[in-house]
Task: structure prediction
Amino acid sequence: MNVSFDKSTLRYSLPNKLLCIDDNRLIPPFEEEVNEMGVCSECGGLLYSFTYHNFQDYKAVVCRCGDCSLLRIILFDPAWEWVGEYPVSIIENASQDCTNLVESNSISDIENIAAIKLEAVFSSREIEAMIQKSKGEKYVRQYLYNARKKYPRFNELFGYYLEI
Ligand SMILES: [Zn+2]
Result:
């Protein structure tokens, strides 16, 4: 069974129960049901389903471990055969984070991003260079270069693809 999506981009918004795949698809649940879904790979606790989403021909079930609260996505084929289990990162609010991504698929104006998030990953000089670059101003190439190396980390933490 082949399923084509970028497994590193799975995100889930708890408040509005939207699954975000490939950064540009927001998938609302077609069902919300609590079922036992297997065993947590981290702690051995029981995984319980949370929401069910249609994805391509597949069913993606968002599960939460009853013990350690880890969220996982379990993918099933159309015959409900198990395809795979994937980690999923939580985003606070899909209507903010993901809808931006639906529109642009990336963030090129970092002033839309809270400073506290930027400061968690980048140095003040790197942030300065990113702001200058996004405004078309002069910037120190070395700082931007250093910042760019951290973009994957920033995406991992906060779900923004930076394109600066
Ligand atoms: Zn667990």
Observations:
- The pocket of zinc ion is lined by residues 40, 42-43, 45, 65, 67-68, 70 (CB under 6 Å).
